Amino acid sequence: MTDPKLIHEALKYHFGFDTFKGNQLEIIRNLLDGRNVFVLMPTGGGKSLCYQLPALMSEGTAIIISPLIALMKNQVDALRNFSEEDHVAHFMNSSLGKKEINLVREDVKSGRTKLLYVAPESLAKWENLEFLRSVKISFFAIDEAHCISEWGHDFRPEYRKIRPMMSEIGKFPIIALTATATPKVQHDIQKNLGILDAHIFKSSFNRKNLYYEVRPKTADVERDIIRYVKNHPGQSGIIYCLSRRRVEQLAEILAINNIKALPYHAGMDALTRSANQDAFLHEKVDVIVATIAFGMGIDKPDVRYVIHYDIPKSLEGYYQETGRAGRDGGEGNCIMFYSRKDLSKLEKLIQTKPVTEQEIGHQLLMECASYAESSVCRRKILMHYFGESFDTDNCGNCDNCLNPSVRIEASEELSAAIDCVLQIGESYREEYVVNILIGRATDEIRNNGHDLVEIFGYLSNAEEKIVGMVVRQGVISGYMSKDLENYGILKVTAKGMQFLLNPGKFEIVEDVDYAEKDFEAQPRGGSACVADSQLYAILLDLRRDMARKLDLPPYVVFLNPSLEAMATTYPITNEELLAIPGVGAGKAAKHGAKFLEVIRKYVEEYDIVRPTDITVKTMPGRNNKRIAIIQAIDRHIDLEEIAESLGLDFSEFIDELDTIVEAGTKIDIDYYIDEILDEDQQEEILEVIRGIEEDDMNSIYAELGDEYDDDDLRLMRVKFISDIGN
Known about the structure:
- The protein is an alpha/beta fold and 726 residues long.
- It is 49% helix and 11% strand.
- The strands form four sheets. The chain has a seven-stranded parallel beta sheet, sandwiched between helices. A six-stranded parallel beta sheet has the order 8-13-12-9-11-10, sandwiched between helices.
């Protein structure tokens, strides 16, 4: 196996980061060791790095197959800004002329190009296949791999021809990456690419920084959207509509109301569409109003909100579209406007399709409706849909959890629902089961003889809405399962069988009437917080000016978290700049001098005393990690989430907190402690800590170890030292 130390050194040198996210390190190790890899990782999880870093570390050129010309250009621009050499990355597609293609080929042939982005259509051309056969290739990466599967939400027929084309060129390791794939889609991708032996890496679908909310769609929906956008001035946002006509109308309404917005849809000419996308990426406009044609793979990290004007056609598509918010780890608000009227319109559109597609389309739409109308934690519903358990009842960052609804005891109703599914042979959908339970003898039920089963009409005294909630929430809680790829047929799980034999407590959350819902929850957030907001504003202006001159999106120059770190630690030397997260050797060489000059002048003008505990002369990686921790705590990010992002287990993370407060730095972790311990518990622990003569955790454990978790006691000691000692 490739030495992890070498991979970490390459990460720091090329990209300026000290740690990997989630499974990134193991994915890269497997690819560098010549294995096929399948990566299922949510948007913003760091998929691109999984092939970019190994490409930079390998001999030869990595071929990246990508579906969109605009996406290729964005990624190539970003890579060139991480490197000192422009020829490190190229794209080859229909936007290039013959002379430009020849220049690309020369760079690839010479070995100077480490990543070559191509569209499937370009790969299919005979002259390109001939050329690629003549060069040294390190591996193939298939980005947005769900496009391969006919079961995926964005199927593209040309993607199914990729495997034969790769075989024409030669045998090389393959990495396939996607943000959304059910088990059936995943298997279809692996089978089509011939990588059933691939090492599979799945990351959690839980994007903790995203806030989910569903609002009633009223006649004043445009006014609601205008108010929302104006309450978030200067922030980037995407508004999705189902029809091109609505996109044009809404973009015009926003513009009339002095909001910098542009439309984007597949019916526009390519030049205008590309110009509008670039205007959004370069921050010339704040809002893009678009159909789902916009955004696949858009590499803009600081989209702060995604609004769905219309209900989406599937939860898979919804998850990917909302995933374009908060990719930098900061705040991302996901607002859906929902009305049953829109649902009826989509149902009518589905009826024009072949019968099989109608069945699938109807089931996917019903999942969206259940999500919109439910009062269960939004995050829990989404995680369940992708086959991931989410055991927390209150995520603290969706409208339903911030405005909890009434809970109703329904163990008898759940037992009846489970029994009904078994009595009718586990072969029918939710609506069918509900009709039997309430005693509604539809033609289908009579024809199947199910009006004669023992359970028919057992819940006839209950409201249909309540029975439907029991079934839906019984599925989310794992007592029943729904086979989405077989039209949503209900099955009973082992947990459900156990409940039927020994019923326990089961509460449902009462669903709301979305025609009457009227509130605005406050998301938990994750917005930027820096030590020196004045310097941060100056650095933002400098970045904007540089980006304009270079004709690049501002985030390509430096990411927001990098600017936040600069405005907190005041780097004035190249060595200090390289210790900033997200600043590698290439970025420092290309853009660093002007930023250092501005910071140096600022420090002199305002006589800034720079933090002495974050000098980069000793153990830069460790100090850099502590800076990241301090900044994340300032932003009130969940402590477990910070630990996970830094690749630390929670105990190691508390070790870092100990070091930070013992060095004299004051940190405020009350927002986390208040979630895990009530006031009386905190006071009890603090009383013991105050009464111990020596700073000895063993004495604290001896007093309180039977009542409290060790980590909670250690965190209270950190709080005590920070509050009292610093």
